[in-house]
Design brief:
Number of helices: 15
Oligomer: single chain
Shape: elongated
Number of strands: 9
Helix content: 25-40%
Distance between the termini: 30 Å
Strand order of the largest sheet: 3-2-1-4-5-6
Strand content: 5-15%
Largest sheet: 6 strands, parallel
Length: 396
């Protein structure tokens, strides 16, 4: 796998940081998640990862964390700015400076914050807040009264986790030239703006794609030939025939299907009125009424194999069965021809990872003896003072 031999220390967090770690783990990196002891972790983005439980408020536990990071290639920080520094795990501890030598100057130190503190002092926040501050939420489709948000996809995972993983890979490539690590600073507001460059640039210009008021443009639900329609069974069809030749194919097949079923509607469009905006309300009503005459799968068959740009809206289960992997769990992507990602049997491992499952094994890997581990347990490094010889059985 492409990242075999890399060691990543991921401090347990929510959404973006675990996803960045997952991308790296899927491609062979040894990702060790540092969990707080005696706390359940319901994170499901843990395929291919291991867990060590450490009490970072305990001096012995903190020393183990430093030793672990000192041997790592990458650290992923999921916390608000300044938290790692307060714990004594900031980048200044590991990177060289003019004043002192760090513990690991080759370390790629990646952060995923919510927003740029200098610009947005919002305290705690979540996806919807970062999406709002990015300017993207204001141009998304929705009702006439307000825009709708697309789950927690854009800020948490695209602008946050995926761009964090991208930054890590860039820093690793650069390290091959300089021999030095660096800090990768990411935040979800700026990341969301970056991955939304296309719509934001169009929205701030007089572009027919997104330059008008929300809900009146080609790509935000304003155009009846780029929208989702409800069928007679309550399921949906997506229509995206933007180009004139595709619209002609779509509307001809749609009209033909209605004629074959002897469905007569009050108004029928022609194939040359696609961009006559004054006709859009009637065209939308025609499509809404027509789609509701038959179930989704009927319409899917009508357009199957054509260039109509009309396909069914699948459920997660349906999409999983059609995926080349045949799995309901999304497969690593993209695939590399010579160095494919994590084998499916490992990628389909337990959906959650119990904190501390691999504590003892990880400690041995970083050079600690059984006696060292026992002493650390007695000092409270793992959250409880224990003389237990098998740390992994302590459910730390």
């Amino acid at each position: 796998m492409a990242l075999n031999g890399l060691t990543v220390v991921e401090f347990a967090g929510l959404a973006p940081a675990p996803f960045a770690g997952l991308v790296l783990a899927h491609h062979g990196a040894s990702v060790i998640r540092v969990d707080r002891p005696c706390l359940d972790n319901k994170d499901i983005l843990c395929a291919g990862k291991r867990s060590i439980a450490l009490d970072l408020k305990n001096s012995a536990g903190l020393a183990v964390a430093r030793r672990l990071v000192a041997r790592a290639d990458v650290l992923i920080d999921p916390f608000r700015p300044g938290i790692m520094e307060k714990m004594g795990l900031g980048p200044e501890v590991f990177h060289d400076s003019h004043e002192k030598k760090g513990l690991n100057d080759r370390l790629v130190y990646a952060r995923v914050a919510g927003a740029v503190e200098e610009s947005h002092d919002i305290g705690e926040g979540h996806e919807i807040n970062y999406l709002a501050l990015s300017g993207v939420l204001s141009i998304l489709p929705g009702s006439p009264e307000k825009p709708a948000f697309p789950l927690n996809l854009l800020a948490d995972f695209a602008g946050g986790g995926l761009l964090c993983a991208t930054g890590i890979l860039l820093a690793l490539v650069e390290r091959e030239k300089s021999g030095r690590g660096q800090v990768v600073d990411g935040n979800m507001v700026s990341g969301t703006r970056y991955i939304s460059s296309f719509p934001l640039l169009h929205a701030t210009n007089t572009s027919p794609l997104l330059g008008g008021p929300r809900g009146t443009n080609l790509l935000d639900g304003g155009a009846p030939f780029y929208d989702v329609y409800t069928c007679s069974d309550g399921k949906w069809m997506s229509v995206g025939c933007l180009e004139p030749q595709f619209f002609v194919t779509f509307i001809n097949k749609f009209k033909s299907a209605l004629q074959n079923e002897r469905v007569k509607l009050q108004w029928t469009p022609t194939s040359d009125m696609q961009f006559c905006r004054e006709e859009w309300p009637k065209l939308r009503g025609y499509l809404e009424e027509g789609f509701k005459t038959k179930p989704r799968d009927y319409w899917a068959n009508v357009f199957h194999g054509s260039d109509a740009c009309a396909v069914p809206v699948l459920t997660p289960e349906e999409a999983g069965h059609l995926d080349p992997s045949g799995s309901l769990r999304p497969a690593p992507h993209p695939r590399l021809s010579r160095t494919p990602p994590l084998p499916q049997d490992l990628a389909k491992s337990n959906i959650t990872l119990e904190p501390g499952t691999h504590t003892e094994a990880v400690l041995v890997e970083i050079g600690l003896s059984a006696g060292d581990i026992k002493q650390l347990g007695s000092q409270g490094a793992f959250g409880i003072r224990t003389d237990c010889e098998d740390i992994s059985k302590s459910r730390l």
